[in-house]
Specification:
Elements lengths: L20 E5 L28 E6 L10 E6 L14 H4 L12 E5 L4 E3 L4 E6 L14 E5 L5 H9 L5 E5 L9 H26 L5 E3 L5 E12 L2 E10 L6
């Protein structure tokens, strides 16, 4: 997996350059490296140039799902392999059209509306493109849940560290016989969901704890209650204790 550095959390996802994304590679030879081209000379915000073995992409849509944090996952056809990652035909690979070739390899992972709480559960459900509004299909590919606070130990961890606890549930597997194509698709859906977990953790939960002492002049301490979400931007909401030295 490879994740290039992108814009700060306070920035909206206004164009492709601002999208958080993750690339999933598979070794082209047994036991070999997944990425064979050196990447040390590339800018940290750029995608890898080597498309050999690229299997899937996890990416924010432009505008980030508006009021619901959203990432899209789609498979990459290696026959023939794409020449450049920046030129991937996204409209063909991630699509809401069930008749399009890329539909079966696509999924969207959608989170809570408007607010991501620091101490509450946050659930991201994975389903086929455009199926989130259908209650019967919502979460059909599985779900990712960031666990909230349940006891004093969880509270201390959330306040003082960036450690998080996640649970992940994959799609239900029926008892029918699968073809090789169905089996590969289910395994890659699991790989995409696991990769999406790492990307979501980086995007929304990779901070130094909800509690801060003396973060700014005139503030004794503050605790982050939640993040408001809009178009890919995160706006933190704090409860703050000010140092009112000028009061009698």
């Amino acid at each position: 997996m490879f994740h290039p550095m992108k814009c700060a959390p306070c920035c909206c996802v206004c164009c492709n350059m601002c999208q958080h994304e993750m690339f999933i590679y598979a070794p082209t030879t047994p036991g070999g490296p997944a990425i064979t081209t050196p990447m040390d000379d590339r800018p940290c915000c750029s995608a890898p140039e080597d498309t050999t073995g690229l299997q899937a992409v996890i990416r924010q849509p432009v505008c980030g799902g508006v009021y619901r944090p959203t990432v899209q996952a789609f498979s990459v056809d290696q026959n023939p392999p794409p020449q450049n990652i920046e030129q991937l035909p996204e409209k063909e690979l991630w699509t809401e059209d069930p008749q399009a070739p890329g539909y079966n390899g696509s999924m969207e992972i959608v989170g809570p509306c408007l607010c991501i709480g620091s101490f509450c559960d946050a659930t991201f459900k994975a389903q086929a493109p455009g199926a989130h509004d259908d209650e019967n299909r919502r979460g059909e590919y599985g779900k990712i849940q960031r666990e909230g606070v349940e006891d004093a130990e969880d509270l201390a961890r959330e306040c003082c560290s960036d450690a998080d606890t996640y649970s992940i549930k994959f799609e239900k597997e029926g008892c029918t016989f699968w073809s090789e194509l169905d089996w590969n698709q289910k395994m890659w859906n699991k790989a995409k969901l696991l990769s999406a977990l790492f990307l979501l953790d980086y995007m929304f939960f990779e901070d130094e704890g909800a509690f801060e002492c003396c973060p700014e002049p005139g503030i004794i301490c503050r605790i982050k209650c939640c993040d408001l979400y809009c178009c890919g931007a995160l706006i933190p909401c704090y409860c703050t204790l000010h140092n009112n030295q000028g009061d009698d």
